[in-house]
Specification:
about 160 residues; mainly alpha; two-stranded antiparallel ribbon; 4 strands; about 5% strand; globular; transmembrane; membrane
């Protein structure tokens, strides 16, 4: 598989498919190579999302995942371009308004289901991972793409359960 090198501020060298595989592997709870809505729900619960939001997120995630399997998943140049075009306040983070601006600009005409799925996925991401200043950092988003953030959150949650 050919490697595609990312820019130095993403600290990752991988192939686009490897990013998708890493991202979705977290949600393949039984490791059978197939992700169903129940496993997606369990994955969201594992990272601490509530029942209602996990249900909504799993449906949005599933529809988004089905559509992106036909399209490139992580393209480093487009990732950088999004921050260049929409991160007006800070170069390596998005505010809620900047995220909304990006979502609106990237809508596909007449794809209401896609709009809703993208909105839910990104706003849930923002809600869960914004920093104390209300910013969604570039590195956090990159870690969502490669799945490493999910693994970290699951481990932290399991660790806190053991302490309790």
């Amino acid at each position: 598989m050919a490697s595609s090198t990312m820019s130095s501020d993403t600290n990752q060298t991988d192939t686009d498919q490897d990013f998708l595989q890493k991202h979705v592997a977290f949600f393949d709870r039984n490791k059978d190579g197939i992700i169903n809505p129940w496993e997606t729900f369990q994955g969201f619960r594992a990272i601490g999302v509530g029942i209602l939001l996990s249900t909504v997120a799993s449906l949005a995630f599933l529809s988004t995942w089905l559509s992106v399997t036909l399209l490139p998943w992580f393209v480093p140049s487009k990732f950088q371009e999004n921050f260049k075009n929409y991160a007006h306040t800070y170069p390596d983070a998005l505010t809620s308004d900047e995220l909304s601006e990006m979502l609106k600009a990237k809508r596909e005409p007449m794809d209401c289901i896609g709009w809703i799925a993208a909105f839910l996925e990104w706003k849930i991401l923002f809600y869960m991972y914004k920093d104390v200043n209300g910013l969604l950092c570039k590195e956090t988003i990159r870690r969502v793409y490669d799945g490493s953030l999910f693994e970290q959150m699951d481990k932290e949650r399991q660790s806190s359960k053991k302490k309790a």
